[in-house]
């Protein structure tokens, strides 16, 4: 047995998102978001589940904070629901909506937990979607106004800011694949939305600097690691496209101010152009203080003519799978963050999400023996240690998720929590993985 020690200033945390946990979807003047519309449209979400009640964190946030405190985390990542603040996306601030986040932030600070806030975790006000959503550049101005209100309100209290969560999901998953709200299937729309969201990120960073807000600001991209199945050039190229779809397309504009040309050409060959306006690339690549990375999976890819968008297909090579059917690929985490360092230098990195979905059962004494999830965490923590040792500027890690919650198009059946949510009673029960993480934090490391 050896002990892997983590630096004492390493930030351990957990993460959630507003629409996935809050519920209270019509309370205190909250406007509707694209996720209310989408989840209330029959056939869009498994079992036609929706976030009307979710974990009811709008009323039970004190219990959530108590769970965080007992867990021993330094930080908690959550998101603010834009339609609580501006029910119509723009206009007058809804003070009652803001009050909810005042209560949450104060409760966290009183418990000695640093709030890490995501400004956009997918709940776009429906009123803005009605005018074209992220494809309309007016949404950029609306976002910056919303961000400004939050920056000013919480200056000095919230010290870690994340503008966008997973711009790939906001753009391609939601507007090309169509699996998430608003559910479009149009490549040009996806490319446009990705671009406009990145401009909105950059404009918000400019506003943050201009206002002199305390703390650090960055954005979160969801990265995957794909290896070519063979060394054949066509497989190598196919894997390169699969990676760039998630990784370079977002990382390169954010951190270098350019798009990867081979992907610009590829999208052009499919009829989609990036709608770059003067000054956009400079705006997008505003210096940021850290990059947030959400990592879940990856795998092996090979060339296959006319398959999907990239002439490529994923190949099953015997990985263990989670209940989402995602490969368990801890080494992929090591590889992708090593690539970030090689490609983009020593920017501080936070893993803003990582975690696993498994089928859980409530056992005697309200315990959940989720050995597979605890093992998933352990395997990834070993890689965190390896990354830190290798000189990657990895500053913190947020487990997804504090609680089982509304898993978007998958509804409630897919559980990612380290705390079990009983959706009938809304009681919360820590799982074995919670106690595993609690011990790692208390010991500043783990035995392997
Ligand atoms: C994400 C989302 C989470 C998901 C998680 C599991 O950023 O993808 O933030 O909301 O629940 O990724 O799919």
Automatic annotation (TrEMBL):
Q: Which residues bind substrate?
A: 20, 121, 165, 296, 400, 407-408
EC numbers, comma separated: 3.2.1.21
Arranged from A to Z, the UniProt key words for this protein are:
Carbohydrate metabolism, Cellulose degradation, Glycosidase, Hydrolase, Polysaccharide degradation
PANTHER family named in the record = GLYCOSYL HYDROLASE, LP05116P
Q: Report the domain of life of the source organism.
A: Bacteria
Q: Does the keyword ATP-binding apply?
A: no
GO BP terms in the entry: cellulose catabolic process
- Could you identify this protein by its name? Beta-glucosidase
One Gene Ontology cellular component term attached to this UniProt record is: cytosol
> Which InterPro entries has this protein been placed in?
GH, GH_1_N_CS, Glyco_hydro_1, Glyco_hydro_1_AS, Glyco_hydro_1_beta-glucosidase
Q: Family per UniProt?
A: Belongs to the glycosyl hydrolase 1 family.
Leading EC class:
hydrolase
Reactions that this protein is recorded to catalyse: Hydrolysis of terminal, non-reducing beta-D-glucosyl residues with release of beta-D-glucose
Catalytic residues per the record? 166, 353
Q: Does the keyword Hydrolase apply?
A: yes
């Amino acid at each position: 047995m050896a002990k892997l020690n983590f630096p004492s200033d390493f930030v351990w945390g957990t993460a959630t998102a507003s629409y996935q946990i809050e519920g209270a979807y019509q309370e205190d003047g909250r406007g509707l978001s694209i996720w209310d519309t989408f989840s209330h449209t029959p056939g869009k979400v498994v079992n036609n589940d929706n976030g009307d009640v979710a974990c009811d964190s709008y009323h039970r946030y004190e219990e959530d904070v108590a769970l965080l405190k007992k867990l021993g985390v330094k930080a908690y990542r959550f998101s603010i629901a834009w339609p609580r603040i501006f029910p119509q996306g723009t206009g007058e601030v809804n003070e009652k909506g803001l009050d909810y986040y005042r209560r949450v932030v104060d409760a966290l600070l009183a418990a000695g937990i640093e709030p890490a806030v995501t400004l956009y975790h997918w709940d776009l006000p429906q009123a803005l979607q009605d005018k074209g959503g992220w494809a309309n550049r007016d949404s950029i101005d609306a976002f910056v106004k919303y961000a400004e209100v939050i920056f000013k309100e919480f200056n000095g209290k919230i010290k870690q800011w994340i503008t966008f969560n997973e711009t790939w999901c906001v753009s391609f998953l939601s507007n090309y694949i169509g699996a998430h709200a608003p559910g479009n299937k149009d490549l040009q729309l996806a490319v446009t939305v990705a671009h406009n969201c990145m401009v909105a990120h950059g404009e918000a960073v400019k506003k943050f600097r201009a206002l002199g807000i305390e703390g650090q600001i960055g954005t979160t991209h969801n990265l995957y690691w794909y290896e070519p199945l063979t060394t054949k050039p066509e497989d190598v190229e196919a894997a390169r496209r699969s990676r760039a779809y998630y990784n370079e397309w977002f990382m390169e504009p954010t951190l270098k101010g350019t798009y990867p040309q081979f992907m610009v050409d590829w999208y052009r060959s499919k009829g989609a152009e990036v709608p770059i306006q003067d000054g956009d690339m400079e705006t997008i690549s505003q210096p940021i203080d850290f990059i947030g990375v959400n990592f879940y999976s990856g795998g092996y890819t090979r060339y296959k003519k006319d398959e999907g968008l990239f002439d490529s297909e994923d190949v099953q090579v015997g990985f263990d799978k989670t209940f989402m059917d995602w490969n368990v690929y801890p080494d992929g985490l090591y590889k992708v963050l090593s690539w970030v360092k090689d490609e983009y230098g020593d920017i501080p990195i936070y893993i803003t999400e990582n975690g696993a979905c498994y089928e859980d059962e409530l056992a005697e004494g309200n315990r959940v023996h989720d050995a597979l999830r605890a093992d998933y965490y352990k395997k990834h923590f070993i890689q965190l240690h390896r990354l830190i040792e290798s000189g990657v500027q990895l500053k913190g890690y947020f487990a997804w998720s504090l609680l089982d919650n509304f898993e978007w198009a998958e509804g409630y059946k897919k559980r990612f929590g380290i705390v079990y949510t009983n959706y009938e009673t809304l009681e919360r029960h820590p799982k074995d993985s919670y106690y595993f993480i609690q011990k790692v934090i208390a010991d500043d490391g783990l035995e392997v």
